[in-house]
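Review form for a predicted model. The reviewer records the input and the model, then writes brief findings.
Reviewer: anonymous (R2)
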Amino acid sequence: LELTESLVMENPESVIGVMRELRQHGVLLSIDDFGTGYSSMSYLHRLPVDKLKIDRSFVTNVETDRHNEAICESILALARSFDLKVIAEGVETQAQLEWLRSHGCDEVQGYLLARPLPYLETIAALDLRKAAEPAFTK
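Model under review:
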């Protein structure tokens, strides 16, 4: 389940309580658009989350823009210090993907990998992927 940073910060005490309940039920939580809102670092260590998602605005030109590079490096280091996984949004080029991989980003999303698909096309694509995977035998 993804929650935007701004949603969490609107009423952090209440949202943190709900997040803890969801975690007790096995729900994995991500903070979406991390770095674009008005987050408080004092709350970050209290949030029961599994992943931070780097907003696409920071991924754009990360391999050539020193400001975006510094922001992404900082988010990656912060996440590692809290034992959180990091997902980069908006990956559109091979250069972005290579930069993110080389800096320890755990997962990526974006047009480079796949464009958004309607439900039925998503199911068909997943079925094709599953059929293409090698069968495992004992």
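Findings: Residues 43 and 60 are 27 Å apart (CA to CA).
Further findings: The mean pLDDT is 90.
Recommendation: see findings above.
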